[in-house]
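User: Could you go from structure to sequence for me? I need the amino acid at each position, not a summary. Structure tokens:
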């Protein structure tokens, strides 16, 4: 089974927990995720399945969007609500204008200290493993970019926000540092990821929905769907068909929606064979894009190809057939 599935991760599970659960549901060993979510966090967790795990390299620097709540009054050792208090609790009543002014300093390219409970490595060891053993965690500040950081409102000691950030940004650190600047301590009380790259919460499905669809598929006959391709100068021979887990199909992101920065090109039968062999091919010149997604048929993504010159492309990544 090959595809991209967007899970609405529930709170309390690690990203790896979700991956393992999906492996069991789909009976598919090859499952990976495109960006870790903390156990506290919920929301968009894109999963790549089967041969599409090879697309993960294109998502390492993906932009992400969040909504969440910061609680002021005390810091925690993990910088979120799952940690132990790290400063004495204070009574705080927030002033909206003050928080708006404070938040403005976190927009743009800034230096940020990663949380001690994070996957950042110290001499090859993840920082969280050292922190759990109460060992000293010496991290260095890193440059991150916060493209949008909007305070939606304040109530008592809570501030609601919306953010859009570059890869590698920790909203836990933003909360912690805001508390430091106010002198009262703060931590991230809740966080929901609403988008990763081209995937949004509207594309997401719960684990329960996935399991229900998988169970329906196992009790229903498979549906033979003709894998036809759109009209092209050299259409693929008709009649090719494949068995599709019909109940699951609608939960997966359509392959042509992946990596929208790369145009789609449909290869004919001869070029499909050449691409699968890793050989350069001439493809219809739909644009001057440097890289394209190559399909055989409507849904069968077979390669990411890089332009050599004119209409000549060399397959950068070849996705093996089932």
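Assistant: Here is the amino acid at each position, in order:
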């Amino acid at each position: 089974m090959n595809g991209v599935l967007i899970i609405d991760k529930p709170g309390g599970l690690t990203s790896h927990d979700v991956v393992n659960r999906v492996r069991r549901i789909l009976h598919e060993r090859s499952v990976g995720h495109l960006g870790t979510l903390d156990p506290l966090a919920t929301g968009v967790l894109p999963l790549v399945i089967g041969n599409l795990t090879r697309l993960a390299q294109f998502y390492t620097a993906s932009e992400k969007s969040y909504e969440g709540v910061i609680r002021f009054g005390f810091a925690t050792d993990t910088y979120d609500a799952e940690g132990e208090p790290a400063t004495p609790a204070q009574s705080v009543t927030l002033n909206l204008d003050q928080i708006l002014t404070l938040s403005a300093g976190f927009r743009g390219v800034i230096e940020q200290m990663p949380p001690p409970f994070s996957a950042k490595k110290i001499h090859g060891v993840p920082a969280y493993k050292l922190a759990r053993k109460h060992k000293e965690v010496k991290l260095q500040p890193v440059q991150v970019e916060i493209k949008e950081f909007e305070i939606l409102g304040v109530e008592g000691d809570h501030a609601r926000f919306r953010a859009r950030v570059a890869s590698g940004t920790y909203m836990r650190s933003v909360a912690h540092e805001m508390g430091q600047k106010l002198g009262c301590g703060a931590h991230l009380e809740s966080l929901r990821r609403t988008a990763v790259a081209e995937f949004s919460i509207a594309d997401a499905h719960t684990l329960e929905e996935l399991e229900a669809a998988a169970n329906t598929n196992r009790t229903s006959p498979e549906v033979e769907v003709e894998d036809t391709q759109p009209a092209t100068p050299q259409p693929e021979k008709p009649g090719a068909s494949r068995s599709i887990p019909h109940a699951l199909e609608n939960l997966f992101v359509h392959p042509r929606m992946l990596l929208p920065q790369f145009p789609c090109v449909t290869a004919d039968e001869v070029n499909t064979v050449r691409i699968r062999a890793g050989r350069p091919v001439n493809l219809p010149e739909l644009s001057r894009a440097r890289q394209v997604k190559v399909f055989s048929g409507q849904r069968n993504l077979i390669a990411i190809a890089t332009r050599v010159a004119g209409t000549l492309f060399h397959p950068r990544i070849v996705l093996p057939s089932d």
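One structural detail worth keeping in mind: The helical segments are 15-26, 96-104, 127-132, 171-182, 207-219, 246-249, 269-276.
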